[in-house]
Amino acid sequence: MNRIDYLFQTKKERVLSIYVTAGFPNLEDTLPVMEAIQAAGADIIELGIPYSDPIADGPTIQESNTQALENGMSIKTLFSQLVGFRSKIHVPVILMGYLNPIIQFGEEEFCKKCKEVGIDGLILPDLPMSQYLEEYKSLFEEYGLFISFLISPQTSEKRIREVDENSNGFIYMVSSHAITGAKAEISPEQEQYFERVANMNLTHPRLIGFGISDAATFQLASHYSQGAIIGSAFIKNITNSTDLNRDINSFIQGVIG
Amino acid sequence: MIQVDEKGFYGSFGGAYIPEMLYPNVEELRENWEAIVASPTYQEEFQSLLKDFVGRPTPLYLAARLSETFGAKIYLKREDLCHTGAHKVNNTVGQIILAKKLGKKRIIAETGAGQHGVATATVCALMGMDCTIYMGELDIKRQRPNVERMRILGAKVVSAISGSKTLKDATNEAMRAWIADPVGTHYIIGSVVGPHPYPEMVARFQSVISEEIKWQLKAKEGRENPDLVIACVGGGSNAAGAFYHYYNESSVRLIAVEAAGHGIHSGKSAATSVLGTPGILHGSKTLLMQTEDGQVIEPHSISAGLDYPGIGPVHAHLHEIGRAEFVGVEDEDAMKAGILLSRTEGIIPAIETAHAIHALNQISFNPNDLIVINLSGRGDKDLETYIQWGNY
Known about the structure:
- The complex is a heterodimer of chains A (257) and B (392).
- With 257 residues, chain A is an alpha/beta fold.
- Chain A contains twelve helices and nine strands.
- Chain A has helices at 3-10, 30-39, 59-70, 75-82, 99-105, 107-117, 129-142, 157-166, 188-198, 215-224, 232-239, 244-256, and strands at residues 15-21, 44-48, 93-96, 121-123, 146-147, 150-151, 171-174, 206-209, 227-230.
- In chain A, strands 5-4-3-2-1-9-8-7-6 form a nine-stranded parallel sheet.
- In chain A, helix 2 (30-39) runs parallel beside helix 12 (244-256).
- Chain A is globular and about 45 Å long.
- Chain B has 392 residues and is an alpha/beta fold.
- Chain B has 16 helices and 14 strands.
- In chain B, the strands form four sheets. Chain B has a six-stranded mixed sheet, sandwiched between helices.
- Classes of the chains: A alpha/beta (257), B alpha/beta (392).
- The interface between A and B is large, with 44 and 36 residues.
């Protein structure tokens, strides 16, 4: 069974996924940061493949992308760092990235490597569902890779049902009309949207991302879904860290309590 | 047959590779734009503004001394005489009426050199709509007069401080702003780039150029088709407009002129057709300049309007199937051609356009050939670059 499905079968609430850009803050930090995230109690690791033009991300994550690229990170380097990581990391690991670097690496080769090292799923914000169904679905399935699609407050009920039908593992629920890291609190309108989707009886669990940054927003998101994804706030927390283990542990413990 | 398919592809290029957050906006546009643009009320307003506000039809001018210089009959399509000084306004007029019909209250746009920003700020002032222009921090410093033009027209100019702080980053920022206000905002993309339906929609608004060339040439020469049409290509909107009604006229040679900067392989160039490989940029699959790892490369051209790392998907397709001939013109040669046109015809061209003029030296044609060059913009905005170059 895919680790993502296993997780949601055994844990039905307060699932915490932490996003971190691979090769950040330093090139060789990828694995130590992943280990620290797991040790601190997060349930999923979402590892970002850095890209020069991440249009769905805000300034914090873009800067971490730029830094990681300056550090020399690439998909090739990432896979070499990930060889053997499953001896230490048992939580689900998802790669999040924009399509272009993956196309240049070679889509099939990418999927093959993902399977070899032990990646469980993908989040590809600029891969539209229609293109996925046409070009990528059978490929991802062949290599056992899950894909989570996004929904936002603007997504119609009909399309949410399509996303539910075509996602594996979980649905990535974007909390607001925004890019990552844009907001610090959750408005009543957002809560109405969370509730509306919660009442749709979707097949897949939902994780709420964008604007989740601390214990309060995590608690609120978990009230309406199975959990949440934290990215920008986590990146900020480790940007100038002098002790990654200590800072990662205190951040995640601060969120899940 | 050069035609976009229903998913927005020209051959293998195009599509709509966008985050789900933009899906409703882009869908709204895709589903509605053609019907709105075809409606009589739209057409009435559009045609009236093109005529009385933009100043169309622009002349098709027989450049006698230039013809003599190169040994062919050369016509210039005078888009430089459009209001705001370039073809860009054809598209902004088209899109602002569309935005109004869609009930949008606010307009956003990206700009590199500032020409599209000025054309957008102009139509927003005309319609009394709120306008925000995203411009790279470096470009704001380099293009001060255009920044002030936009501000005089009432637009807010927002500095894009991410990435390389130029056009591609301004485009990223505009897309993010659109994600943040999907209901009330319309994004006026300035070139034949971006997710479907933008490339085709912008090309359609610019197609007035070749539509006019056809009847103007018929009146002057007794034939609708020239032997060659020449236009410069950054993203490719003026070229798409000049080529549009000739895509499927196989007797017409289409010459797309790219900026070769310091030389195509110098590392300082914007010759995407040679240096680019297929990839995804700003929502469409096209040819783009990128590293082996798929990171987008910042291009170079002396002309700020040509230094875009990609080309519109329709041009990638024209290149792939060999329908258009691509020529790379270097900075120095473009500047010389700008001076040449100034002195033979009394027209100081935009430096983008000067690339198209110089292409006459790099392609073969016959003495009795009829050539149309799309004179996409005037050189007022480039005076500082001409002065700094100084070789005149």
